[in-house]
Amino acid sequence: MSHNFQRPQRLNWPDLPMPTARVACLGYILLIAYASTFPFNFNIGVGADALDWIFAPIPRYITSFDVFTNILGYLPFGFLVVFAVYPKLKSYRAVLFAVLLGGLLSGLMESLQTWLNTRVPSNVDWWTNIGGTTLGALLAVPMDPKWLSGSAFHHRRIQWFGARSSGILLALSFPLAQIYPQPAWLAMGDWADVWQTVTLWKETFNFATIEIATTTVAWFASAICIALAMRDRAPKTIILFTILLVTVFLKALFTGMQFGIDKSFIWLTPSAFWGMVSSSILLVGALKLSRRWLYLLALLSLATMIFLVNFLPQSPYYTVSIQEWRHGRLIHFNHLISWLAWLWPVGAGLSLLKGLKPSSSI
């Protein structure tokens, strides 16, 4: 027996492609195309060639905002490309491919902007886009093969969310949905302009009280909806509060880009802060309840959020923010994000209905 014993060989992590990364990369390319060419009012007869921007002089005025947004916009693209081409391309080959693809994509967008009345193509934008792509690719290349191949992501997904994808979509889209100004911090589903709702009360309101209540209910409802899409073994508290921290970071980042670094946290009023804190305390206790009670709380709190957002008077601060935001620097990006803020409660409701089915994978 001892002569037949062989020491087990160490297995290398398999170099497998990650189809999800390729889909995400393609989706991000479409997002870049949308943000770069919206509202698609092309005018071919402007008298300029598609490549004139390459040899144009450097613009006299280059703002730090433009440089920063161009780098930030293409950084995720370079990061995703490295995942998408693995294992066909690795190391410096993956970085080189990402840079070349980023340069071609950015060059195509700049050429298309030649015929857009609302856009000005620039070689500076092209270089900063390439810089963002390079930075994103360099951040992805050193990662372990088990992450680049997607095996670790897949393991975490099955462990935390099972076969359902609704929870992942809700978790990933929630921070992005908060970028667009809401009637109260973390509240979504402002459909008043769609169905022409009328406020139920005309007298003067204490808007601070409304904001505390709306923020409390909004984060509680959103977090419970995401938690119900997870499996019981998932570290729900850690995941939910990580999502909240990412949401705060993105909100501050895009608000600072929009209105100036000194106004990055102008949205975090005392009412919004204490509403978020009180809701988080309630959430820790609620997660210990059974799933039946959680579904009931999710439905009630989600309906309450929709009611507060649409039928109570809106704060004057929110009205002013909307007017400034829609005419801001990120007007085309904001238009896309506003749809996400409107549709997120609908997706959360559908996820709850799907989870109620007896055949649910949760």
Describe the protein.
With 362 residues, the protein is an all-alpha fold. The protein has 2 domains: 19-149, no CATH class; 162-355, no CATH class. It has helices at residues 19-37, 52-55, 64-85, 91-113, 123-140, 145-148, 151-161, 166-177, 192-195, 207-228, 236-259, 270-286, 291-311, 316-326, 331-355.
Count of separate structural domains: 2
Would you tell me the structural class of the helices and strands?
mainly alpha
Radius of gyration of CA atoms, rounded to a whole number: 24 Å
Q: Please state roughly what percent of the residues sit in beta strands, choosing from under 5%, 5-15%, 15-25%, 25-35%, 35-45% or over 45%.
A: under 5%
Assembly annotation: single chain
Number of strands: 0
Low-confidence stretches: none
Major sheet summary line: none
